[in-house]
Design a protein that fits this description.
Layout lengths: L5 H9 L9 H11 L6 E5 L5 H9 L3 E6 L2 H9 L9 E4 L15 E7 L8 H11 E12 L17 H8 L4 E7 L2 E7 L1
Parallel strand pairs: 1-2, 1-4, 2-3, 4-5
Antiparallel strand pairs: 5-7, 6-7
Length: 191
């Protein structure tokens, strides 16, 4: 089974699976590399429970849309009522196959992909689709685990991307900035 589909992710979210939360170090990196949103559009791909989309929207000031292919994750994101102000827009969408013209904005100042890149079956095609919606001068923010950062005996050692996958991710951008957080690397990529 391919891992980049709703058939894979929906049962995990529906059964209560939760993933790595944003900590203070990652929040500081987001502020440093993305800067204030000032109402500009941001797209969070694979938004899951909505934590990153809400952070972009409420903390950094972007007008954020969160998309995910798993309806249960979007229901969880939409049900979070921790903020008093209106939150992000939520859409059920598969970034790899759905029509990009159905997104609420034609281009985004920030596109985020947190803990998702590793699961993309065709990483080159995924990056091409992201480039279609990233505004000139925009930022693609990718957080992904790197291979070799966990002990071979760790049951999650397989989660890291390979050196070749990291090179594919960073190829063709005019500016590439990285920062490491334990087993993950954060990438700020600019066209």
């Amino acid at each position: 089974m391919t891992t980049a589909t709703a058939a894979y992710w929906e049962p995990l979210w529906a059964d209560g699976r939760r993933y790595r939360q944003i900590n203070g170090a990652e929040a500081a990196l987001l502020a440093e590399h993305l800067g204030p949103g000032r109402g500009r559009p941001a797209l969070d791909i694979g938004s899951g429970d909505g934590a990153l989309a809400r952070h972009l929207h409420h903390r950094l000031g972007y007008r954020t849309t969160g998309i995910d292919c798993a309806p249960s994750s979007l229901a969880l994101a939409a049900a979070d009522g921790t903020e008093s102000a209106p939150g992000p827009l939520w859409r059920c969408m598969d970034i790899t196959t759905d029509d990009l013209a159905t997104l609420p904005d034609p281009a985004y100042a920030v596109v985020t992909c947190r803990l998702l890149y590793r699961w993309m079956d065709d990483k080159a095609a995924f990056l091409d689709r992201v480039r279609q919606i990233l505004a000139p001068g925009g930022t693609l923010w990718v957080v992904t685990e790197l291979g070799g950062r966990r002990a071979d005996s760790d049951p999650h050692a397989y989660l890291g991307i390979s050196t070749a996958e990291a090179e594919l991710l960073t190829a063709g951008w005019s500016v590439v900035r990285t920062a490491d957080l334990d087993v993950v690397r954060c990438y700020a990529l600019h066209p």
